[in-house]
Amino acid sequence: MRYQPEHKIEIRQKIVNNTSHRLRAEGLAGAAVSTVMQDAGLTHGGFYKHFASKDDLLLESLSEAFRQITDVLTRAANQSRPGSAWKTIVKTYLSPEYCDHAERGCPLAALGSELARADKAMKPQIAQELAKYKNHMLPFMPGRRISDKERAFFAIFSTMTGAITIVRLLPDLAMRKKVLANARKFLLRSF
To answer: Cβ-count burial of 134 within 10 angstroms (0-12 exposed, 13-18 middle, 19+ buried)?
Structure first.
C-alpha cells in the first residue's frame, strides 16, 4: 500500500512529539529508538526512514520541547496586562501543573543536568536551542535595554529551573507548594 507524501511527514512529527514528551518525563535514556517507535505504532526497523541517527531525533525532539514551552509561556504573556508579562511567565512556569507534569514543562528543568553532559558534538545545537528560547522570552522580560532583559532572563529562568528541579525531588506536597510559592514571591519582588 502506497502512502501519500504527507503521511511520512505526519509520522515523523508524531515520533518527534512522542519523543519530546518522553525525554522530559524520563530523561535521555527514556528515548530508546525501540520505545519511541513503539509509541508511534511502528517497528524499530523503520526508524532510519525518518532520521539519520538517534542524535538527530534527540535534537529535533529537544527543539520541539522548547517550542512547546515557548508557546505556552508566550500565550500566557500575551494574555497578561501590559507590563506584567514576565510576572505571568513566572506564575505559569512555577505552577504545580508544570512542576507535576515534566513531560509538558520546560526541557531545562527536566533535562538540564543531562544536557550538560551530552555529547560534545550536540552542544552547539543545544546552545542554539537555548539561545532561541531566550530570544523568544526577551520581549517579555523586565528591563529597558537588551542587556538588562538578557540579565533578567538568565536570573529568572535559572531560579525557576532550579526551583522546579528541587520541588520534583520533594515527596511532601506541602513542602513542594512552599518552595514554589517562595520562588514565585522572590522573583516577583526582585525586578
So the answer is: middle
* Domain at 119, CATH number: 1.10.357.10
Give me 161's grid cell: 529551573
For residue 173, give every residue at least 6 positions away whose Cβ sits within 8 Å of its Cβ, in sequence order, or none.
none
Is the pTM of the predicted complex or chain greater than 0.85? yes
Task: Please name the residue that has the C-alpha cell 533535562.
Answer: 111
In a domain, 119, yes or no: yes
Residue 16 lies in a domain: no
Name the grid cell of 184.
514565585
Report residue 130 as a C-alpha cell.
537555548
Q: Is residue 23 part of a domain?
A: no
- Residue 185 located in a structural domain: yes
- The x, y and z cell numbers of residue 180, run together, are 514554589
Closest CA to 33 of 25, 24, 74, 23: 23
Q: What mean pLDDT do residues 181-187 have?
A: 97
- Whether the Cβ atoms of residue 147 and residue 99 lie closer than 8 Å to each other: no
Number of domains making up the chain: 1
Residue ranges making up the domain that contains 127: 53-190
* pLDDT at site 1: 56
Q: Model confidence over 68-106: pLDDT tens digits?
A: 999 999 999 999 998 899 999 999 999 998 899 999 999
Q: Which of 118, 35, 102, 113 has the alpha carbon at shortest distance from 69? A: 102
